[in-house]
Amino acid sequence: MVTAEQKARIEANRKLALQRLKARGIISSNGTSSGTEGGGKPATGGAAPAPSKQDDMAKLQAAAPPDSVRDSTALLEDRSHKRPLDSIRPSIRKQDYIEYDFATMKNLNGGYINPEDRVGGSDDFDDEFGSKKQKTLDDWKREQQERRMLYENAPPPEHISQAPKCIECNVNIEMDPVLHDVFKLQVCKQCSKDHPEKYSLLTKTECKEDYFLTDPELNDPDLFYKLEKPNPHSGTFARMQLYVRCQIEEFAFKKWGGEEGLDQEWQRREEGKSSRREKKYQKKIAEMRLKTRAQEYTTKLREKKYGMKHVHDFSVVVTTGKDEDGHSYTRKKCIDCGLEMEESDL
């Protein structure tokens, strides 16, 4: 139930609201609405209509002198177009504190439906066929056909019997996309797995070490097709370059005179490695012998100067001090070779 205090508060608020409406000219002093039609009848609708822009301008022109009517009208129009708070800008950027603004996010339904592609959306996605929302089914089919032609040298066959077949099995018409698109080989996936000795991929290092090909030959696009992939060891390393084995072997056999010539080149290079390794070993041995001879020569000079067997001739023993236990230290020096000895008396 409403108490007496709450009723008094409601009545006071009602009086304040009526005073505000009277001050704004929405209702007259006798309590009737100022928005009447014709012969004093109130306007249709239960609530009092808000004053329109034309009513405000009429009241301002009636209250102001004739000279200031034009200025007041311009001021009112300027306020209607530009609010006072529009010139106030926040001093702190919200992007410094808000990482994800959910008020500006759009639901794209997992990327399958874009609201901008619908009727009435943005026209920023226009292409050669017109806007997506205006594209017909025939246009879409023609666009897909032209895109497919970019990756195929010939149009698709009219009948399945005319489709190209695998050169290994002569049965499958579905080719390995990597071998077909990159290396231009008409081989199916099953045959590429069954014949790894022909269709396996080799790295650039393997081509240089196993088939003795050079960098200019491997980088020549007229000689080899290659597939580039990110380096599996690190993203900052150079991209990995892959070659198909059959193409590498064909060029290597022509370069070295067949498989036997390639084996002879491998044997020649292995012998060259062994000879270089032997030369390096002999060089190290010669350096070691020079050091040994230098030591022998130094020993001979010492023997010539001091004799084969040197007997030390020490000087007078000199006491140098005592240790923590009170034992004294003595020092003596050879007059001939300069050898110093320090002894302690226990």
Automatic annotation (TrEMBL):
Q: Which GO terms describe its cellular component?
A: nucleotide-excision repair factor 1 complex
Question: Where is it localised?
Answer: Nucleus
Region entry Disordered: which residue ranges? 23-82
- Record's compositionally biased regions (Low complexity): 25-35
Arranged from A to Z, the UniProt key words for this protein are: DNA damage, DNA repair, DNA-binding, Metal-binding, Nucleus, Zinc, Zinc-finger
Gene Ontology biological process terms in this record: base-excision repair; nucleotide-excision repair involved in interstrand cross-link repair; nucleotide-excision repair, DNA damage recognition; UV-damage excision repair
Do you know which PROSITE patterns this protein is assigned to?
A: XPA_1, XPA_2
**MF terms (GO), sorted A to Z:** damaged DNA binding; zinc ion binding
Name the domain of life: Eukaryota
Where does the record place the XPA C-terminal domain? 198-248
Q: Which Gene3D superfamilies match?
A: XPA C-terminal domain (3.90.530.10)
> Has UniProt tagged this entry with the keyword Zinc-finger?
yes
Protein family per UniProt: Belongs to the XPA family.
Give the protein's recorded name.
DNA repair protein RAD14
Name the source organism. Candida glabrata (strain ATCC 2001 / BCRC 20586 / JCM 3761 / NBRC 0622 / NRRL Y-65 / CBS 138) (Yeast)
